[in-house]
Design a protein that fits this description.
One of its GO terms (molecular function) is adenylate cyclase activity. It is found in: Cell membrane. This is HAMP domain-containing protein. The structure is a single chain. By secondary structure, the chain is α+β, with helices and mostly antiparallel strands. Among the domains are: 42 residues, no CATH class; 190 residues, Alpha-Beta Plaits (2-Layer Sandwich). Helix content is 50%, strand content 23%. The chain is built from 16 helices and 20 strands. The protein is rod-shaped and about 175 Å long. The relative contact order is 0.07. The N terminus is likely disordered.
């Protein structure tokens, strides 16, 4: 039961994964593409919005400064005389009332002498004639007509800016105005980007000129306060035309753009929190995530239902395959689902029937292989006709071989040692017999009988038999070397003859052997009995059939047991034969 559950669990996981991916991959692909293109579109929109707002803010600040310089221009229209100019004093006081950002005005004549000073916070001076020609503002205005000083902080808090303007002629002199930049706060605080985006102004050294939070401006040149604003400006410079991302003074991620204010060399920076700038993208991602979760839940439910419905048929299939695997080929699986599972069950039933037939075939081949070469057994089974095994008269080569001194060896050796030697002996000869497609008919103790050219005919059976015998002698001699190292005195002899014989299967219903009967069999057995260790003896018919294709050595006439007359006998040198091959 545990095995069933584990297999079902694995199948359930596969179905769940396939259905899950089938739903999630399209949703994920669509969500990612939507997020990517949406991000690009939103980034473009944010970039355009921030750039427009930055340019607009810079234009408003530039307009604020231009309004001041336009008013200052009315004070440098007429040349100075040596007499006090009451009209200029009245115009200066009127300008202070009209432009609240101006804190003080200083009028200098063409010779660089102070002629008038009016202030909101200090004492007014008239016609002091003090030399101001070396003043930085005066010199700057004379060289460039309009001069902007650096932002400085009154009492280290309020930002001030000095603006100096000269007239079209040197004789009209220069007007120097001190401007309180706190009033720019009205311009900056009115700039809104979205719900929480805002703008701020930095001068060239990176000091805060204006910010919606006036307290930050009133901190003056505090480095800790200015550091995040300078960092944002630096990131924008490196980004070029693209929207820059950085962190504001509170550590929040923001998108920012900048625009210059040309006159005083200021930079207007407009920033908007990324959470707000890319809010639509985040909302789309949340929607996509919701769809993915819903799709995953649906896929999981569907996979669970399908896998549950498949449990019982799969259990039956698994049980059936185990019983069939155990050899119960009569077992059948019955599934009536009308789908692929039913067809699979039908296939299993067909397979069981074929396996039963295959088992019978394998048993038949196994019986054939007991006395036929595996190639011959396969041939008989493939043709489905064992007529080749029926009795008939044909020319065969009978090969006999046995061990010399085996009887004495088996009498003094232990049974285990005897069985070990025989196992090595039959294993070596069996491989050679199979290699030459010969037929092993009988073996008893240490003796074997092998047929060549029956039941399946071969070309040049005598030559094939000579090679077979030579390789058998060579292989066993290698074994004998090892046996003698263990003090076993054993030799090996082979005899072979060719001639007509009656071949076929003999036996009874449950046991058949394939054999040969005839004079050639007796002669081969007698030659084997006459062969000494390392000898291969053949009759004259073998020598004639080989006809010089293999080296044959005439041993003259020999008396052979069972024969009244001496017979010509030939020897085969297996070392020379193998060396030549």
């Amino acid at each position: 039961m545990t095995r069933h559950r584990l297999r079902f669990s694995g199948l359930f996981q596969k179905y769940f994964l396939v259905l899950f991916l089938a739903v999630v991959i399209p949703l994920a692909t669509n969500g990612v593409s939507e997020a990517w293109f949406g991000y690009r579109d939103q980034r473009t929109t944010v970039e355009q919005l921030l750039s427009v707002e930055a340019r607009s803010a810079a234009a408003k600040i530039q307009g604020f400064l231009d309004g001041i310089t336009n008013q200052l221009g009315w004070l440098v229209q007429l040349p100075w005389t040596e007499e006090p100019d009451e009209r200029r004093r009245i115009d200066a006081l009127r300008l202070l009332r009209q432009v609240p950002a101006i804190v003080s005005l200083t009028l200098v004549d063409g010779n660089g002498r102070e002629r008038l000073y009016v202030s909101r916070i200090g004492l007014n001076r008239t016609d002091s004639r003090a030399d101001r020609s070396t003043n930085e503002a005066v010199a700057g205005a004379r060289s460039g007509q309009l001069w902007y000083g650096e932002v400085r902080y009154y009492r280290d808090s309020e930002p001030y800016l000095t603006i100096a303007m000269s007239g079209n002629r040197p004789s009209v002199g220069v007007v120097v105005a001190e401007v309180n930049l706190k009033l720019i706060w009205d311009v900056i605080s009115a700039i809104k980007v979205g719900e929480t985006g805002h703008a701020f102004v930095l001068d060239a050294p990176g000091r805060l000129v204006a910010h919606p939070d006036i307290s930050l401006v009133l901190r003056g040149a505090d480095e800790a306060t200015l550091a995040p604003f300078r960092a944002i400006r630096e990131v924008i410079r490196r980004a070029g035309a693209d929207v820059a991302t950085s962190r504001d003074s509170q550590g929040n991620a923001v998108a920012a753009a900048a625009s210059p204010v040309a006159g005083p060399d200021w930079t207007v920076v407009v920033e908007q929190p990324l959470s707000e700038a890319f809010g639509p993208i985040y909302a789309a991602l949340w929607r996509t995530g919701g769809l993915l979760l819903a799709g995953a839940a649906f896929a999981g439910l569907l996979a669970y239902v399908l896998a549950s419905r498949m449990t019982e048929p799969i259990r039956r299939l698994e049980e059936g395959t185990e019983r069939i695997g155990a050899g119960q080929f009569e077992h059948r699986i019955h599934i009536a689902t009308g789908d692929e599972l039913q067809r699979l069950a039908d296939s299993f039933n067909t397979m069981a029937a074929e396996l039963a037939i295959s088992q019978e075939r394998q048993e038949r081949i196994a019986k054939l292989k007991r006395f036929l070469a595996p190639q011959v057994a396969e041939l008989v089974d493939r043709k489905g006709d064992d007529g080749v095994l029926e009795g008939r008269r044909t020319e065969v080569v009978a090969v006999f071989c046995d061990l010399r001194g085996f009887t004495a060896f088996s009498a003094r050796a232990t049974p285990d040692e005897v069985m070990s030697v025989l196992s090595e002996y039959y294993d070596a000869l069996g491989r050679i017999i199979t290699k030459y497609a010969a037929t092993l008919t009988t073996f008893s103790g240490d003796g074997l009988m092998v047929l060549v050219n029956a039941p399946v005919p071969v070309e040049e059976p005598a030559v094939l038999a000579v090679d077979l015998a030579a390789e058998m002698q060579q292989c066993v001699q290698e074994l004998i070397v090892r046996w003698r190292e263990r003090d076993h005195r054993i030799g090996f002899g082979v005899g072979l003859a060719i001639g007509p014989a009656t071949v076929g299967r003999i036996g009874y219903e449950s046991r058949f052997d394939y054999t040969a009967i005839g004079t050639v069999v007796n002669l081969a057995a007698r030659l084997c009995a006459s062969a000494a260790d390392r000898e291969i003896l053949a009759d004259v018919a073998i020598a004639g059939a080989v006809n010089g294709k293999r080296a044959m050595i005439s041993l003259g006439m020999r008396s052979i047991k069972g024969y009244d007359e001496e017979l010509p006998v030939y020897g085969i040198s297996f070392e020379e034969r193998l060396h030549t091959a």
